[in-house]
Amino acid sequence: MHAADGTTSMNADSTEVPFRLSPLQWLICSIAGLGFAFDLYETLILPLILRPVLADLGKLVPGTRGFNLWAGLLLFIPSATAGVVALFGGYLMDLLGRRRILVWSILLYGISGCAAAYCWSLPALLLFRCITLMGVYVEYIAAVAWLAELFLDPKRRESVLGYTQTFFNLGGLMVTGAYFLAVTYAHRLPAISGSHEAWRYTLLTGLIPALPLIIVRPFLPESRIWQEKKALGTLKRPSIAELFSPSLRRTTVVTTFLVACSFALPYGAIQQTVQVIHDLPEVRSLTPRQAEQAVSAVQFFQEIGGGAGRLLLAIVITRVVSQRLLLRTLFGACLVAFSWLYFLGATEHLIQVEIGIVVASLLFNSLHSFWGNFLPRVFPTHLRGTGESFAMNVGGRTIGVTAALITTQLANIMPAQSVGARLAYSAGVVAALACIAGLLASSWLREPVSDLLPD
């Protein structure tokens, strides 16, 4: 059935045709998937370009304390700052609507990402990265809540959230390709700020993904659940304090801590891998351009694994009864995979890194998709954006991202002969501790009381 505005079929209980989507629903899923892809596109630019940026703007030498300090700051401060700001983005999303916040967040990260290509110093790059990640983090939370409320049938909702999140790693593949092309052809392109640095062209491409989303998303429907409650005057005003009321306190605290453990894995380990491989024998013998192409190859394998992990989660999420058991399984597998990669594989041969990063990325991305499916089910409508934002942005992108700073500073004192080995062992220690903490804390995770979204 379709209402005059074409939105009813997206919100009605879909028991008649449980797995058939209307053309408008396909469009919504496609645009949401592209939004997720471009979120990761913007996020992964910095780990790819970090080494040449620090050498160009800061004149810093890899392995020195100054290099490690700025590497940690550029990974930590933008994410932590954006995480705090994005918490209020979630609040505004509950107050003003999902679609409006989606559009403005995309515009914010598109423009700031482009402006970063023209930065003149490391502090300037730091500022632009803070603004870019603010838009990215708000966009993700808004998109997840928007999709969850547009598809009310539980199995359809879980499938839509699971499969659209597989598009995340399309963004990773796209930025990997963009960086490879920039490294290969930068000398043929018009100069940016008087130079032909590949990292500047890579940052400049961040504006391109935002253009189709800005054009299409303003014309897509608002969440019907939110809209109806707003029109009837039954939508309660969102409140961060309410997240710590007796009925929600345990859910808020436990999910925030577990999301922090999850996000420690990419920031403390996965995103450090492209710095580790520069010290491998195969890479040391390459020219600077070939070394950066090798970085792109490792990033490519990482995104292949990530896409496989999200697809795996999308397949199993509707078939697993216990969400707590699924979470424990993922953390346990991460403990084994990350320990092998960073204590053994990452210090031996490039092929071992490429194999290990596929598995590690598969498992983390399954974890990330797990939270995208789980969080909308444990917070009521008027707090869905605020609750999701608190767990993901305060837990993952403010607390969890401190793992990046810990890893880079721990590398200064880690006993090992080479720069790459010190960083790899540091990443392994941080990842192992995060997995163990996640396994222990998962015992306190409450199962959702129903397959339906709470009112």
What can you tell me about this protein's structure?
- There is one protein chain.
- The protein is globular and about 65 Å long.
- Mean pLDDT is 85; it is low at 1-18.
- Helix 11 packs antiparallel against helix 19.
- Helices cover 72% and strands 0% of the residues.
- With 455 residues, it is an all-alpha fold.
- The protein has a single domain (22-239, 246-444), classed as Growth Hormone, Chain: A (Up-down Bundle), CATH 1.20.1250.20.
Overall outline? globular
Judging by the overall fold, what is the CATH architecture?
Up-down Bundle
Which percent range describes the beta-strand content? under 5%
Number of domains: 1
Radius of gyration, whole Å: 21 Å
Instruction: Enter the CATH topology name.
Output: Growth Hormone, Chain: A
Low-confidence stretches: 1-18
CATH class: Mainly Alpha
Q: Count of DSSP helices?
A: 19
Distance between the termini: 24 Å
CATH superfamily: MFS general substrate transporter like domains
The share of residues in helices is over 70%
The secondary-structure class comes to: mainly alpha
What is the overall pLDDT average?
85
Task: Break the fold down into its secondary structure elements and pairings.
Layout: H1 8-11, H2 23-57, H3 65-96, H4 98-115, H5 122-150, H6 154-165, H7 168-185, H8 198-204, H9 207-216, H10 224-232, H11 249-268, H12 273-276, H13 281-284, H14 288-316, H15 323-343, H16 350-374, H17 384-400, H18 402-410, H19 419-441
Helix pairs in contact: 2-3, 2-5, 2-6, 2-7, 2-8, 2-9, 3-4, 3-5, 3-17, 3-18, 4-5, 4-9, 5-6, 5-17, 6-14, 6-16, 7-8, 7-14, 11-16, 11-17, 11-18, 11-19, 14-16, 15-16, 15-19, 18-19
